[in-house]
Amino acid sequence: MDSSIDEAAAQPGGAGRTPPATPLPAPDPAMPAATEPAGEAAPGTAPSPATAPAPVPATGGAGEERSAVAPASLSPSRASDFMQCPLLYRFRVIDRLPEKPSEAATRGTLVHAVLERLFDAPAGERTAPRAKALIPGQWDRLRESRPEVTELFADDPEGERLAGWLAEAERLVERWFSLEDPTRLEPAERELFVEAELESGLRLRGIIDRVDVAPTGEVRIVDYKTGKAPRPEYAEGALFQMKFYALVVWRLKRVVPRRLQLVYLGSGDVLTYDPVLADLERVERKLHALWEAIEQATRSGDWRPRPTKLCGWCDHQAHCPEFGGTPPPYPLPVTAPGAGTV
Ligand code: SF4
């Protein structure tokens, strides 16, 4: 085992909570450059709170035409959508219904931007005060790139709620320094867009918050969460996204990442998992089964609602039969029997 990997973490093939992580320097020039994702499953650029489903960025204003598209690839967020509720997946991927920004998800986007930009500074200057000083500028940039987020504070003329929201962003950024030491880290990649095609033709894509590569070539995939760590019985669900990314990295580089690391800024926990090849093969089989179900629903137009307590986070209750709503007309051609039964 490479001594530069956090030895205190879980054993290979097992998950565990670790003390603050140790460094993994040296970039890997073989990693593809980061770009923005596009198309279908434009994965939410905002991370979600631990209990909330990952959001889809709101697009456009009322009355804007959105062309329906058949699903063409899978991201962790949209795979989770389908597992949570097939009808939610349809609304997000095929109908592309707009969604309102939420305070929690927008704060997550802001905190992610700050943590990413902090690594622009020389290692010795990556301090908590410097990170917190980045918040106002990154908030300005976020409002420029996604003007809809200003709606969040439209009813806050005195700016009190905004001040509290920004203060919480500061707390989350500050907590990061108790979990990792950025002066000892030199990420190989930040906000890395990855995409890989499986032998079946299924395309997987997503954005990895941070990739660390040790001089020995061992890869650590890191994801920041602004929510709280899940209870141990729900850790597997949280790790699904990470194993998805590990599968993509393995497919791209034929390297099984040495460690998957979830950093929960909301609760100050670090959850790690050291995957083995069998984990990735299992995830691949699961994704194929999922994709088959998505293709079947796409052909038939049969997207069932699956109500759970997460419906409270869903923006589409007005279109959902479980809440007395009616879905918009199905916009794709139906080529299988049993169509349109939602
Ligand atoms: S309200 Fe619930 S059941 Fe309906 S689409 Fe949303 S998540 Fe699915």
Automatic annotation (TrEMBL):
GO biological process assignments: DNA repair
Transmembrane segments: none
Keywords: ATP-binding, DNA damage, DNA repair, Helicase, Hydrolase, Nucleotide-binding
Positions in coiled-coil regions: none
Span list, region Disordered: 1-77
Biased composition (Low complexity): 31-49
MF annotations from Gene Ontology: helicase activity
Ranges of biased composition (kind: Pro residues): 20-30
Ranges for domain PD-(D/E)XK endonuclease-like: 73-321
Designated name of the protein: PD-(D/E)XK nuclease family protein
The organism of origin for this protein: Streptomyces argyrophylli
